[in-house]
Sequence to fold (385 residues):
Amino acid sequence: MLLARTAYLNSIRERLVDYPIVALPGPRQVGKTTIARLYAESLGSEPVHRFDLESPSDLARLTNPELALSPLRGLVILDEIQRMPELFPVLRVLADRPDTPARFLILGSASLELVKGASESLAGRLSFVDVTGFTLEETGGEHLYKLWGRGGFPRAYLARNDRAARQWQEDFFRTFLEQDIPQLGIRIPASTLRRFWTMLAHYHGQVWNASELARALGSSEPAARRYLDILSGTYMVRQLPPWFENLKKRQVKAPKIYIRDSGVCHALLGLENQAALEAHPKLGASWEGFALEQILAVTGDSNAYFWATHSGAELDLLVFHQGKRLGFVFKYTEKPSTTKSMQVALADLGLDHLHVVYPGTHRIPLTESITASPLLDVLDSLAHG
Fold:
C-alpha cells in the first residue's frame, strides 16, 4: 500500500511560488524525505540538488556552505537541517539575492526553537508545511481503527500485522533516544527520557502538572519542564495551550499534554492491539488525542486551544476556523448527550457550534448549537465548509 501524500506535494508547489524557502518540519521517520523525493520527481528536467546532512560525504560538500550553495540553480533539498544550524544565516543571504535563482526545501526533525543557533530570522523568506503521519484523509475512513491503533508513522501503519507495528515502534524509541536526541547536543540519559515519555503517556489528555510529574520522576520541576520541551520540540508531544476569555472565573492556565501519534502512545502504554486498548483506562483519552490530531491536520494548529475553569467547565478543543469559533468535545460512547459543562462553554465562549465527536456513524442533533458527530463527518465539514 503506497499513499502518495498529494496534499503535501500541492502545498510545497504553491508555497515555493511565493517563498524562496519552504520547510518541512515533522518527526523522524514520518516520510519527509519521501515527500521531498516525490516533489523533486514531479519537476521533470528542472535541476535538483540534494544534501543529506546525516551523510558524511554531503557534510563534506558543505564545509564552506555559502561557496557550495551559491552557484546552484533550481531546487535545493537540505535534509535533517537541524544537524547543521550554521546553514540558517547562509540561507538568509541566499534567499535575499536578486531573482532568487534557487528555491530551498529544508527538512527538519526538530523545531527551530530547539536547535541551538537556529534563531537567525528568516521572517518573510520561509513558509512551513508541517508533516504528520498518515491521516484519515489519506488512508480512508474505512481504516479508522487501524490508523487509531497503529498510528500514522508509515512503517508502523503499513506493517504486516500489529505485532510488527509494535516492534517497529520499540526500535524507533531506541534510535530516537540513543541517537537522534544526542545529535541535537542534548545530554540526557536515554533511560530517563524514556521513563518520562512513558509517564506522559499515562497523563495523555491531562493538564500539565510539573510538580506531580517531577515527584514521580524523582527530579526537579525545571528538569521535567526541559524534558517536556525536548519531546515537544521533536514533535513527539503536543502542548495544547489554554484559551482565556475575559470572564469572572478562574481559568486553567497550564497546557494539556498529548502524545501526538496514537500508535506511539499505545506502544508506550504497552498495548498490543485494539482489544487491549478497549480494556484500558486510557481508552477515552486515546480517542480524544487521535480525533484531535485528525482535526488539527485539517484546520492547522496555530489557532487551536482548550478551555477549562477551576469550577469544572471544560472544552477539549477550541478552533478558530474560517471565521468561526468551533468547539469540540471528544466522547468514546455510543450514546452521546449534552452536559452542563458543554452548555457553559457554549455560552461563555460564544461558540458558533459545538461538536461532540464520537465513534458512531450517525449525525445526531442534541440541541440547536450542539451536534453529536462522527469523526469522519466533522473532518468533511471542516475541509469543505
